[in-house]
Amino acid sequence: MATKDYQAAKFNQTDFEKTVDSLTVEEALQINVNNQPFTMTMRTPGDDLALVRGLLHSEDVIADKSFNPDIILNKENQDGIVTIVNVNIPIEKLGKGYSNSRSLLSVSSCGICGKTEIGELSIMGKSIETTEQIPIERISSSFIKMSAQQHDFLKSGGTHAAAAFDFEGHLIASMEDIGRHNAVDKVIGHLLLNQASSAPYMLTVSGRVSYEIVIKCFRAGIPILAAVSAPSTLAVDYSKELGITLLGFCRDERATCYSFPHRITFKKLNKKAG
User: Fold this and answer.
1) Is the pLDDT of residue 83 over 60?
2) Which of 54, 201, 239, 251 is the most exposed place for a label (fewest CB within 10 A)?
3) Annotated catalytic, 110?
4) What pTM was estimated for this model as a whole?
5) Higher pLDDT pick, 41 / 271
6) In terms of CATH architecture, what is 134-265?
């Protein structure tokens, strides 16, 4: 259940009328690892298995991409919404991120709220070095494809979206959530759970880009990250360090590239002589 109807009063300058609005559902999900509380996150219910798998990969709790653990839905509320899940992970499969568990509630607007520490500014691991290029017009066409999948947004206007595309521009996965980072985790989790045959080459996101989304993109091995709105300074700094082509303000067939523009090609107009 991604949306829920609420009664409201819609005002103008001289009058009001009763109305019914569809609003995006926001509910807490407690994630236990090996029957011990690990974190609690606020999210839009739906695709919870993908969310959990993607989050645990992004947080380096499970470092092995090929390992898909047993994720058990432990508890539901009166509306049938899952509230607690348990993930069984063998000790040898636990990554370094497991020791950096979250002690507080992670809200839907922030991907790092509740962490006991942010971690080192330098991310361990080799930066992405691919040099394969895509045409600039593929950026705008990818956002059109993602927008066509934003069914919950059309109802409520309250969800963010993320989508993954392969090198040829084919849509591999598209997800929505009230949180930007949750939508990204759902996409990454979907790719891991389904072992997509095509490797993701570009990730598109609605809204702005903060550094934690850049890290999620890097851990997923995706070289191009494109957003509707602006990146933060730290997002640009991380992109330069990790080898990610970061584009912001992707609107009206335009985009601003902040790092590694060599992966983007464009048509050069012939200038008339004289």
Assistant:
1) yes
2) 251
3) yes
4) 0.89
5) 41
6) 3-Layer(aba) Sandwich (3.40)
